[in-house]
Amino acid sequence: MTQSEPVETFLNALLAMDRVAAKRTLEGSTAADARLDVVERLVVPSLERIGDLWERGEVSLSQVYMSGRMCEEMVDAILPPSDPGRVDQPPMAIAVLDDYHLLGKRMVYSVLRASGYELKDYGTVDGEALVSRVVRDGIVVLLISVLMLPSALHIKTVREALDRAGCRPFILVGGAPFRFDTELWREVGADAMAATAAEGVAVVRKLLDHLPKEYRS
Amino acid sequence: MLYTDDGPPNAGRPMIRTPEQIRALEPPQVADSPCLVKVLEATRGLKAAGGEETPIIGVVMSPFSVPVMQMGFEPYLNLMFEQPDLFERLMRLNEAFCIQWANAQLAAGATAICYFDPISSSTIVSPEHFRRTGLQVAMRTLAAINGPVAMHFASGRCMPILDDLPRTGAAVIGVSMLDDLAALKQRTAGKMALLGNLNGIEMRRWTPQQAEAQVRAAIAAAGHGGGFILSDNHGEIPYQVPEDTLLAISEAVHRWGTYPLDISRESPSAQPLKDPRS
């Protein structure tokens, strides 16, 4: 069996929304010392591939969503939220700005948790509430999801208010306006954008790899 | 509803909190809804002012897509995949309202109806799932609408389901900038007209020259032989797009979109603005 075969098997089970087959692939590797390893070896690459396939128009958002949700459930079973085997990380949070379209946020949340991270879910918030929660919780990585252009533009106000409060989290943005205008994230004062949930995980992982130790939990 | 000064209203908190509520729902009546009556009054006023010269496009949300606002996207996907009986009931309720609302707008003077159905797009559900669900809903609904209909995917892709779309009865499809406009044209010529596919979000930063290049490329890709309506690809141009850009688009349409077209089919596609992540 080649190294990529388990990933293919797991990926196909996810796209077929076949929980049993997906779980069977993961279960071969759940020894205590290998739990995070299986996430890195199987879950993360599979979700990255699914994100790429969606961006190329080869799979649908409903498949991306269901894959993320299934992975989140399976990873929660082998690595509960308080498990020390989860990723060592600083406080992170995710929010939807001025909108009740929550699916994009839900997918990023699932894929991050399925990749071993923990983050606070602020749900739908306006700019003022978001700023006060980020300051209160000492958030170091803030993910903001939007659907409509005005909400995307309001991120600039959030960044300015955070600056005034002396708070400088890394802001990662995502959502339709950023996919249709790839310059927009810079304009609103974000530090990065992600076109898919899996790309969001890649950005967070790269950031944390380079983050000084004092920022970690 | 959520209101903002710098954009159109947005859907507020979903009103269906649990799938079980669907069992007790009834479709609303247009005549009982003051905001819908107001839209009909506006349509009648436009018809009186524009007569037969100016087309008036009425708008409905597809019964298959409106549950994203009725119950939230995630609960709706869960309903679709896990509770097919309640999904089917919600479709029948929404179809009854959608038909009533479309026909009321046509009776008030609308020339055609734009049926917004982003969930049917291959960006959101797989082609196989669409054939079992969104396609069936569209076929039933459009068959009962008493006028021409454009089916719009609100910037979602439709290339993988293109061959299914004539069965809906739609005369026009609203297409995405994510799909290849020339390839769409090639496959729909003589069957359905195309509506699209300028990038309204990026349009905010276009220079007049870029606006002209985008218009010219779209007309080169889809204008030959007729059956093309130039538009943005989402069904909404943001308030932030400068008027000068809209005027530049209009001038470019008059320059390049007058038949017979003075533009080659082989004209290179206008490229989107650079991807700063690369």
Task: Describe this protein's structure.
The complex is a heterodimer of chains A (about 220) and B (about 280). Chain A is about 55% helix and about 10% strand. Chain A contains ten helices and five strands. Chain A has helices at about 5-15, 20-25, 35-55, 60-80, 105-115, 125-135, 150-165, 175-180, 185, 195-210, and strands spanning about 90-95, 120-125, 140-145, 170-175, 190-195. The termini of chain A are far apart. The mean pLDDT of chain B is about 95. Chain B starts with a strand and ends in a 22-residue tail after the last helix. In chain B, strands 3-4-5-6-7-8 form a six-stranded parallel beta sheet, with helices on one face. In chain B, α7 (about 180-190) packs parallel to α8. Chain B has a domain at about 50-175: Rossmann fold, CATH 3.40.50. By secondary structure, chain B is an alpha/beta fold. Chain B has nine helices and eight strands. In chain B, β6 (about 170-175), α7 and β7 form a beta-alpha-beta unit. Classes of the chains: A alpha/beta (about 220), B alpha/beta (about 280). The interface of A and B includes residues 63, 101, 102 and 150 of A.
Summary, kept brief:
Chain B: GO terms for molecular function: uroporphyrinogen decarboxylase activity. Chain B: It comes from Thiocapsa roseopersicina. The complex is a heterodimer of chains A (217) and B (278). Chain A is α/β, with parallel strands linked by helices and 217 residues long.
Name the poorly predicted regions of chain B: none
Distance between the termini of chain B: 38 Å
Question: Helix amount of chain A, in percent?
Answer: 55-70%
What is the CATH T-level topology of the largest domain in chain A?
A: Rossmann fold
Give the spatial strand order of the biggest sheet of chain A.
Answer: 2-1-3-4-5
**What is the fold-level CATH name, i.e. the topology of the domain at 52-174 in chain B?**
Rossmann fold
Outline of chain A = globular
* First-to-last CA distance of chain A: 39 Å
Q: What is the rounded Rg of chain B?
A: 19 Å
Give unreliable regions of chain A as ranges.
none
Helix/strand order of chain A: HHHHEHEHEHEHHEH
* Secondary structure tally, helices of chain B: 9
In total, the number of domains of chain A comes to: 2
Instruction: Give the helices and strands of chain B as they follow along the chain.
Output: EEHEHHHEHHEEHEHEH
Question: What fraction strand of chain B?
Answer: 5-15%
Query: CATH superfamily of the largest domain in chain A, called what?
Result: Cobalamin-binding domain
- The second-level CATH architecture of the domain at 52-174 in chain B is 3-Layer(aba) Sandwich
Helix-and-strand structural type of chain A: alpha/beta
The mean pLDDT of chain A is 89
Q: Which sheet architecture does the biggest sheet of chain A show? A: 5 strands, parallel
Strand order of the largest sheet of chain B: 3-4-5-6-7-8
